[in-house]
Amino acid sequence: MNASNFPAPSIPPSALLDFISNQPSVKVDFPSILDVKNARFTTSGRASIALALEHADITTGDEVLIPAYHCEAMVAPARWLGATTVFYRINPDTSIQLEDIDAKITSKTRAIIVTHYFGFEQQLQAIRALCTKHAIVLIEDCAHALFGLSSGQPIGTTGDYAVASCMKFLPIYEGGLICSTTRDISNIRLAPPSLMFQIKSAINCLETSVFYNRLGVLGRVINAFFKFKDKLWAYLKSLQPDRQGVGLGPSSSEGGFGLDEAWIHKTMSIFSDRIIRNTELSYVAERRRQNYRTLNTSLSALPDCHPLFSTLPEHTVPWVFPLYVKNPEKYFLTLKMQGVPVWRFGEFLDSAVTKDVCPVSVEYSKHIFQFPCHQSLTAGEIDWMLNKISQIFSE
Ligand SMILES: *Cc1c(COP(=O)(O)O)cnc(C)c1O
Asked: Which residues form the signal peptide (predicted)?
């Protein structure tokens, strides 16, 4: 389950396939990037960024502005196209720093990526105007924001392109999205993945769900099936040797940050596509918001830390719960070793990002811990997590 030396998290770190999210729920309209017309499904958020930059003809010598608070998956696509990456500052509330962006625009600047961190929307009017003025392509990075409103506009509709990472919100093995409200992206060439991968995507999704005891009786049946999975897998491989070397899966689906060239021009699997189309999105949104509030109440009371965002705006649907921790090294490994799902966005910043480039990003890459608040967590699992965190922080 886990590529590192840490134990697998004791509770699910991300959404799982179950029967609940398919049930009807109280209808609340949360604008979602999934509703943007002509959106195209891809294998990951980073593939979508690569496709957006490629579609905008970004090439060698062009400059792409990227927030200093980032993960490698946001940088790799620009470098793949030979572009130069330039990092701009963010403010302590994670809003983009316009003066710094303005100062870093040159005659070579062709594109800028703006991220709605943790699901909390950026205000985009000013950067939209700046991009229009300088003919810079605005890429709205909605990897943390499958839902939301930005300055009254549905998330993903202000940028020239918007990208999302569906697998960060929904129980699918792989999946990203690219859309544009102003450009025709129907000419982006996307091929379906191999049959092997179609199968892998479904198996992986079910396997993760069963690992955390979801899916009831069906889960037990599937579990029995998995006992034979490795044999089946070897057999399928012998039937269809994978000549392109893309039979396994993109590293984006296994927690890696790199960009796999072979997975850029691919659609998501049929299985992932079906899951997305059958998900009750308002349930997902409501549950994430409820869980966020529960975490907020409990974690606000802890010593030596505070929530990065202590209020949840009306249309915001959080990806995770970000907590600012004063002494990160005192707690991070302990939490991980005890099975608490905890990560740090931007833990590994590009070496170009120093304190001089952006003090906030350097600080947040160590001090912001993120805990899950996804729709599949049970009340018992949330209690377990909050008790663990509170124990560890009181030691
Ligand atoms: C995860 C992430 C991406 C890339 O998404 P993947 O689906 O993992 O490729 C892009 N931007 C941000 C802010 C991210 O956190």
From this structure: none
